[in-house]
Design goal:
Elements: E1 5-6, H1 8-15, E2 29-34, E3 62-63, E4 65-71, E5 74-79, E6 82-84, E7 93-100, E8 107-118, E9 125-131, E10 137-142
Antiparallel strand pairs: 1-8, 2-3, 2-7, 4-5, 6-9, 7-8, 9-10
Length: about 140
């Protein structure tokens, strides 16, 4: 999977103080999912701009903050690992979208394109987050066999 694709409005909202990634108390990052027929675009700004799949059977979509630090002018946001375990039918998805539901209208942060639709098995899948050199986060998908 490639690097995250940030929504055009993200940098403006960061500079205007819309986001506060200090901790889970000030920010509530969540994941939403879109399929190939309804891809997100860089011009989307809030969650209602998207057509998302019904991910109810994936359980909790909260993504917790592990750390948020600034060092030498580089801000790093590191998110905790998250396992989504399906408990029923989940529509296929290609895009994982991050948004903050503590902001007005659920402001969008970024999304990942998996390249093709993914179907989660009932045994779950791991989405793994790591900070890269620019202090951004990445998500990796691992589907159990």
């Amino acid at each position: 999977m490639d690097s995250p694709i940030f929504f055009n409005s993200f940098s403006e909202k960061v500079n205007k103080g819309v986001f506060n990634f200090t901790s889970d108390l000030t920010s509530n990052i969540k994941a939403a999912f879109c399929n190939t027929l309804n891809p997100p675009t860089a011009d989307n700004g809030v969650l209602s701009d998207l057509t998302t799949i019904d991910a109810t059977n994936m359980g909790d979509n909260n993504i917790k903050i592990l750390s948020s630090v600034q060092a030498d002018g580089v801000f790093s946001l590191v998110l905790r690992d998250k396992t989504f375990t399906t408990i029923g039918i989940v529509p296929s998805f290609r895009y994982m979208v991050f948004y903050d539901d503590k902001t007005a209208n659920n402001a969008l942060i970024c999304y990942y394109d998996y390249g093709s639709d993914i179907i989660l098995s009932t045994s779950g899948a791991m989405l793994d987050y790591v900070a890269d050199a620019l202090g951004l986060f990445r998500a990796y998908y691992q589907c159990p066999n």
